[in-house]
């Protein structure tokens, strides 16, 4: 592997290519090998229907995983919030790099905040989680389902992008993606997690490889050096919660774990689709390792189920 370039698979969107390029350059530096980007077209990039209709955000992942298993690429880079919680046979998350801003960001016309938007304002999002929490905070807003890349969505906001359709008053996007694309100047308000808990894994990347390649060699060593313990622990807790709830990536569920001086803390919310009902829980553990993180997520999921989470939204459990 040291003599031929390591092939790094990525979706073709500007955001995906930007974040994958950063990963590729870092792995090359850590492992002392050449890298080459391989663009893979996924169902989520081709099909413009609502994510809930075409299988959730897992549609962004399947083609990349097929490329890994077939040998067309050696590493695949995913937005971790897009990754299904079930293990993929033969594949391993070799590294979770240091997580960046977890928050959602409001990009509104005239620099308005969520509290300043007038009643009836049209807010675009493709995420049921964001839509439900927006409705919980501001039931008087009109939430519009949208798809498209970051620039396409920003162009929907009146006066934000010259020449755009401008048919919305605001959109909500992940702060991490806006930062990676250099679009933070479009943000009118970073939404506090007390108002909008992020998706499990938001702000983190997953660097996936074949399980055999994670065991030894230059790529294995580079991935191990790139892995950030705190980031891996927090996303492990959040994803364990999602897995135990048997909820897909598009369910109206937010979760955010933090490493604390005492160990690990986790906050989660389950919403009804219309935002009229929410269940919010907070818990912690002193066991700051992967087993402790997983147990924390499962325990909180059990608490939410006992409190009636399955009655608020569609959960397989």
TrEMBL record:
One term of GO molecular function: hydroxymethylbilane synthase activity
One protein family per Pfam: Porphobil_deamC
Needs which cofactor?
dipyrromethane
| Stretches that traverse the bilayer | none
Provide this UniProt record's keywords sorted from A to Z.
Answer: Porphyrin biosynthesis, Transferase
User: What EC number(s) does the entry state?
Assistant: 2.5.1.61
Describe how the cofactor binds. Answer: Binds 1 dipyrromethane group covalently.
Q: Where is the Porphobilinogen deaminase N-terminal domain?
A: 7-214
What sequence ranges are listed for the domain Porphobilinogen deaminase C-terminal?
Answer: 233-305
Query: Which transformation does this protein catalyse, written as a reaction?
Result: 4 porphobilinogen + H2O = hydroxymethylbilane + 4 NH4(+)
Q: Kindly give the InterPro entries that the UniProt entry links to this protein.
A: HemC, Porphobilin_deaminase_cofac_BS, Porphobilin_deaminase_N, Porphobilinogen_deaminase_C, Porphobilinogen_deaminase_C_sf
Q: Which residues carry this modification: S-(dipyrrolylmethanemethyl)cysteine?
A: 249
Q: How does it assemble?
A: Monomer.
Could you tell me what this protein does?
Tetrapolymerization of the monopyrrole PBG into the hydroxymethylbilane pre-uroporphyrinogen in several discrete steps.
> Mind telling me which PANTHER family this protein's record contains?
PORPHOBILINOGEN DEAMINASE
Similarity section:
Belongs to the HMBS family.
Matching HAMAP family: Porphobil_deam
Q: What else is known?
A: The porphobilinogen subunits are added to the dipyrromethane group.
Name of the protein described by the UniProt record: Porphobilinogen deaminase
């Amino acid at each position: 592997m040291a003599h031929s370039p390591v092939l790094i698979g990525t979706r073709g969107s500007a955001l995906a290519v930007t974040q994958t390029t950063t990963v590729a350059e870092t792995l090359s530096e850590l492992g002392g090998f050449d890298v080459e980007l391989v663009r893979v077209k996924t169902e989520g990039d081709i099909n413009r229907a609502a994510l809930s209709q075409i299988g959730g955000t897992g549609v962004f992942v399947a083609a990349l995983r097929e490329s890994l298993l077939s040998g067309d690429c050696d590493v695949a880079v995913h937005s971790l919030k897009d990754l299904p919680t079930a293990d993929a046979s033969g594949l391993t998350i070799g590294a979770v790099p240091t997580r960046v801003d977890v928050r959602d960001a409001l990009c509104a016309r005239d620099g308005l905040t969520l509290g300043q938007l007038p009643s009836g304002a049209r807010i675009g999002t493709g995420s049921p989680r964001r839509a439900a929490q927006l409705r919980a905070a501001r039931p008087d807003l009109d939430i519009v389902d949208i798809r498209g890349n970051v620039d396409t969505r920003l162009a929907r906001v009146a006066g934000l992008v010259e020449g755009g359709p401008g048919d919305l008053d605001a959109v909500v996007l992940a702060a991490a993606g806006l930062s990676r694309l250099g679009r933070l100047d479009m943000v009118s308000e970073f939404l506090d997690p007390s108002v909008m808990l992020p998706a499990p894994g938001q702000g983190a990347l997953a660097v996936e490889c074949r399980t055999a390649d994670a065991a030894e060699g230059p790529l294995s060593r580079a991935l191990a050096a790139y892995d950030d313990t705190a980031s891996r622990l927090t996303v492990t807790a959040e994803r364990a919660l999602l897995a135990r709830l048997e909820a897909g990536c598009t369910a109206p569920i937010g979760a955010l774990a933090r490493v604390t001086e005492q160990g690990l803390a986790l906050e989660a919310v389950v919403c009804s689709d219309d935002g009229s009902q929410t269940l919010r829980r907070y818990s912690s553990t002193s066991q700051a390792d992967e087993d402790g993180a997983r147990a924390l997520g499962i325990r909180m999921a059990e608490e939410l189920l006992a409190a009636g989470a399955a009655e608020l939204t569609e959960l397989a459990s």
